[in-house]
Specification:
Layout: H1 4-22, H2 27-36, H3 41-65, H4 71-92, H5 97-117, H6 119-123, H7 136-151, H8 156-167, H9 172-196, H10 202-246
Helix pairs in contact: 1-2, 1-10, 2-3, 3-9, 3-10, 4-7, 4-9, 5-10, 7-8, 8-9
Length: 251
């Protein structure tokens, strides 16, 4: 029997999934909610990965069906990113959480400045042709993406989008598709670790994931319908909110 809080979890999973597909930062909704409902922070983080994996899978499949996801490049990016994720998760153990938030907030502010003052890079229609290997910069930044994801999941979508557009040469729509695929790979790896340590609450994770299925489908349709201009506007709005939250003064 569903309780009131189950409906809330479902709806938050739905909304967070739309946010993650269009820009990133959906975990800023899901993690506080799970902690508010009494979950330990580690358990909340682990349970949230179920939602992220499901929404990323749904969105990636939809992008692939529409021939927008460059699956070959996604797999190539994944290899160094997975290495970075392992390193990042180890480093994160000894880093103060408040310090992490400030570091991420500053990185996001830099990305926002680039998006605002180099609009042509984020509005281009031309996309990069498929490649069989990454260049040096793409390899380095793929490791950084993975490190970031292992270090702290929240907001990693912004860094992915930035790297795929500025370094990789993709437009925002195709970068979004790659972002969702890489999110799937990295979080599936993290989820496997959390399952091993028995940190996942499956009932809550499943309800959250069910909401994320519908949100992922709607978010993908909105991204395809709106195109690069729409995604850029949403990206700017959400990353601005994200920065304010992360750089807020401690009380």
């Amino acid at each position: 029997m569903f309780e009131y809080k189950d409906i809330v979890i479902f709806l938050v999973g739905f909304v967070s999934s739309i946010i993650n597909v269009l820009a990133g930062g959906g975990s800023l909704l899901t993690l506080p909610l799970l902690i508010f409902y009494g979950l330990d922070a580690n358990v909340a983080n682990a349970t949230n990965r179920v939602c992220i994996v499901v929404q990323s899978l749904v969105s990636s499949a939809s992008f692939h069906k529409k021939k927008i996801l460059d699956l070959k490049s996604g797999l190539i990016y994944s290899v160094p990113a997975m290495l970075g994720a392992v390193i990042g998760s180890i480093v994160a153990v000894d880093i103060d959480n408040d310090l992490m938030e400030k570091i991420i907030g500053i990185i996001m502010a830099v990305i926002l400045v680039v998006v605002l003052f180099k609009p042509n890079d984020f509005l281009k229609e031309k996309i990069k042709e498929k490649t069989s290997k990454l260049n040096f910069l793409e390899t380095i930044f793929s490791v950084i993406i993975g490190f970031y994801a292992g270090f702290i999941q929240a907001g990693v979508g912004y860094l992915m989008t930035f790297v795929f557009v500025i370094i990789g040469g993709y437009n925002l729509l195709y970068a979004n598709a790659l972002k969702m695929f890489l999110t799937l790979v990295l979080n599936a790896l993290a989820l496997a670790v959390f399952i091993y340590y028995d940190l996942v609450l499956w009932k809550i994770g499943t309800i959250l994931a069910l909401g994320s299925i519908f949100g992922g489908l709607l978010g993908t349709k909105l991204a395809i319908w709106g195109g690069v201009k729409f995604i850029r506007y949403v990206f700017i709005a959400l990353i601005s909110i994200f920065i304010v939250i992360l750089l807020r003064p401690n009380v």
